[in-house]
Amino acid sequence: MRSSTKNIFSILFVVILIGASVYFIYPPAKSTRLGLDLKGGLSVLLTAKGTKEAPVTEDSMEQAMIIIRERVDKIGVAEPQIQRQGTNNILVQLPGIKDPQKALSIIGKTALLEFKPVISATEDKIELGETLMTGKALSDASVSFDQMNKPKVDMKFTTEGAKQFEDITGKMIGQKLAIVLDGKVMSAPTVQTKISGGSAEITGSFTVEEAKNLALVLQTGALPINLEISENRTVGPTLGRDSLKAGLIAGTVGLILVALYMVFYYRGLGLITTMALIVFGTLFWGLIAIFGKAYLWTLTLPGIAGIILSIGMAADSSIVIFERFKEEVRAGKTMRMSADTGFKYAIKTMLDADFVTLAAVVFLYFLAVGPVRGFALTLIMGICVDLFTAFFFTRPMLAYIAQFKFFNKPLFLGVKEAGR
User: Which residue, 206, 207, 198, is CA-closest to 140?
Assistant: First the structure.
């Protein structure tokens, strides 16, 4: 196959990919999943604190992740992000949430439900005995109302839990049985008779909303480890929109300024750079949209910083290629030969520089936590898209245009003398 035919096929291949990218990008307002700092919401870092009874293990952390995810799903937050950070941290990000305090109270709640006998009760405190059964025996929890229209939480036990509860109440007729949640006595009714049927209720002076939250955490079960909120951050929706707007303006202005500079300095070659940057930007945006849909990845403000830095790297690649091309022209080689040999020498420099940067950001991605990983990931994607654009668009476009006579004009190339 002739080289000119290969160049045409390469350019057509890129055009097809651009079409696919546009498909994933459209509509722009919905194609890209935005992170907390761009959309607003709540970010919570939970740190596991181990005890002798509940040590921090890989299994306990994974189980805690599952329970937290179930709680978040029941809250009804769209596009939540729940990730492990290191060995004993869990990062929970809830974009667009309207009630951060409610989410905080539900996410970090231990939900340790215990049934204990009341040994003695005075005005100052209730003395309790050892735990007779825990919330592990529950199968469901829901909210209902008593005869006074006060909210209460109805509990249903598992088959084994129902039998256990029946045995306990059968031995405690006439005694008080305390229902304790996270160390707080919710109610301590006197057992009138053996309770069978596998159900019980929690009554107390709480609101309907509090009853719903209590039922929610009981449905998901108790956390296997003690999680403390070591950091929480709330970002308002207005601040998020402003950050997004500023990031988009910075990226657009940067792209335009780079394109104008390349046209001014490299003239006709700068037009190729402008087209390459358009290709680069479209493919890059399409890749971000695909990552968001396939892996639920969200774009954050540090991620936008990585994108803007990638634009500069893409322009650097064109500069390396064109400067080497101009050196070949000054040496008296033909345009087609200069385009071919110039790219071969330039790509070595590009690969050396890009692989050094790539190695650094790969390590940054795996060692960093939080939004910094978003910066590293967008930079990794930017480097890959830049190399792809250089190989499959800039090189064949340069070689294809080099066939035409107008390409021999020094004014087009931005050099004083062109090879004949």
Answer: 198
Comparison of pLDDT for 384 and 231, the residue scoring more: 384
Omega of the bond prior to 27 within 30 degrees of 0, cis?
Answer: yes
Of 215-229, 263-277, 379-393, the poorest mean pLDDT is in 215-229
Q: With respect to CATH, is domain 3-34+236-413 assigned 1.20.1640.10?
A: yes
1 falls in which pLDDT band (50, 70, 90)?
low
Residues 6+ apart with CB under 8 A from 300: 35, 36, 37, 38, 371, 374
Identify the band that residue 13 occupies on the pLDDT scale cut at 50, 70 and 90: very high
Query: What CATH code is assigned to 41-108+223-234?
Result: 3.30.70.3400
Which helix (H) or strand (E) covers residue 81, if one does?
Answer: strand 81-85
Q: Which pLDDT value is given to residue 240?
A: 65
Domain map of the chain by residue range? 3-34+236-413, 41-108+223-234, 112-209
Which residue spans within 170-269 are E strands per DSSP? 177-181, 184-187, 199-202, 226-235
Using alpha carbons, select from 290, 220, 204 the residue that is nearest to residue 17: 290
Confidence check: pLDDT of 39 > 80: no
Note whether 312 and 250 are within 8 A (CB). Answer: no
Contact 417, 410 (CB under 8 A): yes
Task: Find out whether 37 and 243 touch, Cβ atoms under 8 Å.
Answer: yes
Q: Characterise 44 by phi-psi region: left (phi > 0), alpha (psi -120 to 50), beta (else).
A: beta
User: Under CATH, which architecture does the 112-209 domain have?
Assistant: 2-Layer Sandwich (3.30)
pLDDT in tens, 165-192: 899 989 999 898 888 877 778 778 888 8
How many C-beta neighbours within 10 Å does residue 390 have?
23
Give Cβ neighbours of residue 248 (< 8 Å, ≥ 6 apart).
304
